[in-house]
Amino acid sequence: MAKESFTVTPWEVKGDIDYDKLIKKFGVQRISNKELEMLDRLAPLHLFLRRGMFFAHRDLNVVLKEHEKGKKVVLYTGRGPSGHTHLGHIVPWIFTRWLQKAFKAKLYFQMTDDEKFLVKDLALNKTKNYAKENALDLIALGFEPKDTKIIYDTEHIDELYPFALKIAKRTTFSIAKAVFGFNNSTNIGLSFFPALQAAVAFYAQEREGGKDVQCLIPCAIDQDPYWRIARDAAPYLGYPKTATILSKFLPGLSGPAGKMSATDEANAIYTTDLPEVARKKIMKAFTGGQATVEEQRKKGGNPDLCTVCQWLYLLFEDDDKVMQQRLEDYRAGKILDGENKKYLADKVVAFLEEHQKKREKARDVLDKFSLTS
Ligand code: TRP
Fold first, then answer.
1. Thinking of the domain 6-248, which architecture would CATH place it in?
2. Which of 167, 219, 230, 252 could form a disulfide with 195 if both were Cys (CB 3.0 to 4.6 A apart)?
């Protein structure tokens, strides 16, 4: 078989991702009109659903049906802190806030401050510190302490451990090797870690009323391997299977391939970037334009290759009519790259200015969100 030209695992995303292939490879479902209609009955569809940023799922149909019959839903998502938060990270969190209102659900948010310590060359006090910094970004998106609990693995391990143990006992090393690509040089901390990430799904169900509660996980599709472990273990623990709603990756600014990596600074915009720094990054972004202005006026640009168009489409231009018109004009050569970049940069700067204010305010309430507060 030909080698895939892309890689998607929980610890590595690279190449030009073919999402149709990925759906088949992972064995997940594409979100259908049926699910969209059911979601629309709960709340007007979020941009991420209208534009296909969230595109796949496992058992979302089950959750929606059960919810219509009156069953309770609990949400679970998380972050493996290894640095500051960038815009790609907050895509699922923004969507989680929408889901939280739509389902009137509690959210459990796991900060795996152990994960990147195990995977990367990062000190434990660094990952713990980033966990608190990243939590500020979550809180800034409008979550409230009464229905949002943040779990820090290194602080709250006693709560998760019984659940992790039960999952670990049911997960053989050969399954873990197949699902995560572990090998003989994988450290043994990492080989246990998936049990801990899966544990929160059941922990959240247990806290919110037990076996009848449905757990729905909004996240990027690279996390899917964990949920295979969780779903396999669910019958042994006696819970309904973990359901997911999965997103694509926000493309990086320097080109359409892969996700917005946290290791290439200019490729990503961080929530902590000074607005002028963010503007500069956007002004240097990879576009779908032509070599010269004359050529672009004549031939038009290609929005499919253009990270600026993509960021507008996927995240920053909520108005469907305006977006439609802009894409048309870009293709026709009526909108040039400089202008398009400025249009995006203005939106990003406005977002950052707001977000950064809220982020600073969040410091005062950070402790209230902690699982054990
Ligand atoms: N492994 C995730 C990361 O590296 C963090 C995480 C923990 C997570 N639990 C989650 C992500 C649940 C999504 C859903 O960022």
1. 3-Layer(aba) Sandwich (3.40)
2. 167
Instruction: Supply the residue whose CA is at minimum distance from atom 4 of ligand 1.
Output: 80
CATH 1.10.240.10 placement within the chain = 265-361
Cα(229) to centroid(ligand 1), Å = 14
**Per-residue model confidence as pLDDT tens digits over 241-297:** 999 999 999 999 987 655 555 556 789 999 999 999 999 999 999 999 999 999 999
Residue 122 has pLDDT above 60, yes or no: yes
CATH 1.10.240.10 fits 265-361, yes or no: yes
pLDDT, the chain, mean? 95
For residue range 199-211, what is the model confidence (pLDDT) as tens digits? Answer: 999 999 999 999 9
Stated pTM of the model:
0.96
CA of 81 to the centre of ligand 1 (A): 9
CATH 3.40.50.620 domain residues, the chain: 6-248
